[in-house]
Structures are given as structure tokens and as C-alpha cells.
Description:
The protein is of the alpha/beta class. Among the domains are: about 340-410, Immunoglobulin-like, CATH 2.60.40; about 435-499, no CATH class. Helix content is about 15%, strand content about 25%. It contains five helices and 26 strands. The strands form six sheets. Strands 3, 4, 5, 6, 7, 8, 9, 10, 11, 12, 14, 17 and 18 form a 13-stranded mixed β-sheet that branches. Strands 20-19-22-21 form a four-stranded mixed β-sheet, with no helix packed on it. It starts with a helix and ends with a helix. Mean pLDDT is about 85; it is low at about 1-10, about 10-30 and about 425-475.
Amino acid sequence: xxxxxxxxxxxxxxxxxxxxxxxxxxxxxxxxxxxxxxxxxxxxxxxxxxxxxxxxxxxxxxxxxxxxxxxxxxxxxxxxxxxxxxxxxxxxxxxxxxxxxxxxxxxxxxxxxxxxxxxxxxxxxxxxxxxxxxxxxxxxxxxxxxxxxxxxxxxxxxxxxxxxxxxxxxxxxxxxxxxxxxxxxxxxxxxxxxxxxxxxxxxxxxxxxxxxxxxxxxxxxxxxxxxxxxxxxxxxxxxxxxxxxxxxxxxxxxxxxxxxxxxxxxxxxxxxxxxxxxxxxxxxxxxxxxxxxxxxxxxxxxxxxxxxxxxxxxxxxxxxxxxxxxxxxxxxxxxxxxxxxxxxxxxxxxxxxxxxxxxxxxxxxxxxxxxxxxxxxxxxxxxxxxxxxxxxxxxxxxxxxxxxxxxxxxxxxxxxxxxxxxxxxxxxxxxxxxxxxxxxxxxxxxxxxxxxxxxxxxxxxxxxxxxxxxxxxxxxxxxxxxxxxxxxxxxxxxxxxxx
Length: 499
């Protein structure tokens, strides 16, 4: 027995030591690029014919069937193949010293061969249908990267590329640039023609000198106020109405602010809508409208229209130059004020009415359910009799006034708090037993606490409800438990005696 225990301890100890050794060995290994073990024909390393031919030329070989060694491949530091129709970059993983790669306007979709090429500092992949750039997450030495028009939506894999200085992300469906917030060495950042609306992640990129966010969804430029090194800012075709935060940037030499498209929150239509001017200049002053639709007028700070009938929106334009320390830039655009056609919804509770104005095709806010003594509220209906029940989560306001009627159903259920008194059976003797369907109402501590429910076989099932805690005491489980404990003790003693 002692020998078995000793052997077991030795085996456990050895297993622990081996596990620790394996973990240490794995964790100490650095990521390494792939290598070829022996001379291999070029066209067996690279599968894309165009890329194969390109590598053949770089290595000075006569034919793609010529053999090359890993030493030959290590000599390649730059590779460029633009608009060449390349579909796969399989084989590039063996170019272990590659520092610059340019594959603009090809058909590459899989970047996995680049995963371990950590010496790359410049990478230009614009015009490829990449969609996913996860394979680039480990290329920590990247300083310049172009990913223009690559169908990407998520820039999270770029979050750890802290040495990036130049990053181009134009013409993609990117909505969130939060992963770029930690790229403190960025000097040039471009994400024009994207869906980006929030510039907050850029607030601490103090080395940034050039920012291109043209043709995006930007409406607030205040996150840029602390970026004093900015010299060029491209913000045309956005949704900017207030340029005053840019006044805090002393080194701006190029600024573009034209063709802003601003849409206010919808307001209810009325014959004479009054809308405040939202366009603000560099010093915080309101910029007067250049033109106003539908014969509107402007008296600072409001615009006013005199409308004869419902229209979907009114608008005004603006166009004024704003002067910075080192440059002057035109600030122009259009402000649209959507108008919502409104009608009255009337809530009728047995003739008593309240009302609210609701826009066409909008959801109606559900009012508090009315109470009516002796009745249950069923809901709101679009007719006084019959009608359809209104679903406030789906049904929308029609293009007309509407009345919703509260519908009630008489409550036929007994009052749950009333005691149920049961008359004794025909046997009026004091010793008469209750029949199988009887229940006995007991007055206890001022409340009616039941001793009730004879079972269907006519046997008494006695449940005693404690007056204070409300717990029920059923003696049957206690009896069964006591019997089982007794049997267990007897069996245990017999077992000890047999030993």
C-alpha cells in the first residue's frame, strides 16, 4: 500500500515538472517566419503565376521553374506588383526580410501569409477586397499602411500597431475608429468617404498633423481642440454646423469646410414654424442664412416660414468665409428642417377624454391604464363597440385624428380576501365529521388561515398554516424521515458488528 502511494506521488511530480517545462519552452519562443528546407522551384513556392513571375525577376532567375534557396528568398526586401490581377499571396511567408510590400489594385482576399513578416514597415494594399485585416495585428514595426477601398468594416486588428505614423482608410464602411485611440505616433490619418461620425478617439493623438475626414458623418469637431500640431484638416461634405472649436488650433494652414449637410430633428408642422439658426462661425457668432426656402425670413436668431399647407421640410443655406491665423476657408452647406404632419389622438374612458398630438407614422405613447371598480381593463380599441385593439408597439398614427376607447370586462372572480364559509352537512351532531368536499374556515389571530382540503379519497390531509410565518407544517414528511433515519442507524450498527 505504501509503495503504491509513493509511486503515485512520483508520477504526479513528474507530470507537473513536464507541464511547467513545456509551458516555459513554448512561451519563450519568438514568432518566426516560415523557411524552406531545401532548394525548391519558384513556382512550387508561389502559387499565383503573376506573383511567381515577379519574384523570378527580383531574384534574377531565367525561369519560374528555377530552384531557389531560403538564402535567395531572404535577399528580397521590397516587392511591388500593382494592378497585376494577383489573387493569392501564398509564398510570401518565406520572404522573411521583406520590409516594403505594395500590392495595390489586385484581387487579394487572404492576408495570412503576412502574419509573421514582422520586418515589414510599409504596406500598401489599397484596392483589394480584403474585408478582414486580422492577419496584420502582429506587424508591430509597421509605420505606413494604405487600406483604401478594401471593403473593411472593423479596424480593431490595428489597435496594437503603435509604430504607425501614416494610415489611410478611405472609402470603406468603417463606422468606429475607437481602436485607433492608442496609436500615439500617428502623424497622418485619413478616413474620407466612410461612415465615421465620432472624432473622440482622436483626442489624444497629439502628433497628428494631417487629418482627412471628408465625406463622412462628422457633426462635432470639438474633440480636435487639443491637437495643436494639426496643420491640415479636410472636413468638407460632413454634417458640421459649428466650427468654433477649430479656432483653438493655431497651426492650421489648410482647412476645407464646404458642402455641409445638416438635418435637424423633425418638428411638428404648423402654419408658421419658427426654427433657431444652428450655424456657428469661428468666434461663436451665428452665420446668417444665404438663402431660405419657401419664402422664409430670418431675424436673428430664428428663421420663420409662412406656410399655406403641409410640406415635408423647409431649409436654408449658408456660405461664409472663416479666417484662421494662417488661412481663410469657405464654410458652406444646407440646413434642412423636417416637418411632421400631426393629428390628434383622443383617449376616451367612459366619456371622459384626454388628447395628445402625434406625428403621422409615429408610435403613440401608451397612457396609464385606467381603473374601474369591479372591472378589468382590457385595452384601448379604435371603436367604441367591437373595433380592433391598439398595439402601441406596432400600430402607428394614421394621417387623421383618431379616438381610442378604453374597454373593460366585468370582474366575475370572487374577492380573494373574503373567507369561504362552509355549512356543515345534514348531520347536525356536534361530533359529525366533515364530508370529502368540505373545508373548514378557522379564525386565527384576526385572519382567516385555512385548515382545508380533504383529499379525493375522503382521507383527511391536515396542513397547519403557522399564524406568523405562513409556513405549512405537514406531519407526514417528518414521520417518513424519522423512520428512514432509524433504519439507517440499525444498518450502520449491524455493519460495524459484522466487522
